[in-house]
Here is the input.
Amino acid sequence: MGQPHGFPDSEYSPPAGSPEAPSGPPESVMPAEPLSDPASIGGLGDPLAQPIHTLPPLEEEIGGYPISPRTGEPVRSPLIIAATAAFTLAGLAAMATYWWYWWVAINIDNFGTSAKLIELFDPRPGSGSSVVLVCLMAVIGAIMTAGPGIAAYNLWHGASWSRAAGIAACLTGLLAFFVLPWTWLAFGLAAVGTGLLWLPTARPYFEAWRQFTNPPRPEIVPPTQVAYGPAPRFRVH
Here is the structure.
């Protein structure tokens, strides 16, 4: 039985049972062997002969001063941290000695020796002058505490006038004369913090904060040709 006319060789299949039909089962197609074991390479392809080397990320800077990757702000050097700590301790010392004066002054027997200012005027406890002096002592305590505190806060945030704030903190520390001998510790700590700020190594920190808080603004070019009225495609000719 021959091949019918009109069928190409690739599309003709002899019927079952005919002499031309193959007697055995069809040969199975063997799959191609994989080039490598997928399990050994995680299914991502053939492993490379050499690993890919990458460079570490570039350190971010502003004006040559490093930026902290944790805060995104200019790095606070040990000198800045030490100056901030000195101002903070100065404020705490002023506050602690003022409250010690207050604790002593509430006892009438010790009121006359509770502070240097009280000793200078020696008012009678409960009199009008004693009330005025007590209020004045409260003002002195507030000023001596706030001066170093303001300097510490603005120094930590890179304010350019932190040096002037340090000088002001030293001046307010001179009020320790009217409180207690221990209060001079606040003046000494404020002087240490101010001295650190005037070192040459502190200047780049303030310059970096100046550029960080006032980045250069892009130039705005005003348009020279402005079309008014309907767009050209909507105009009726």
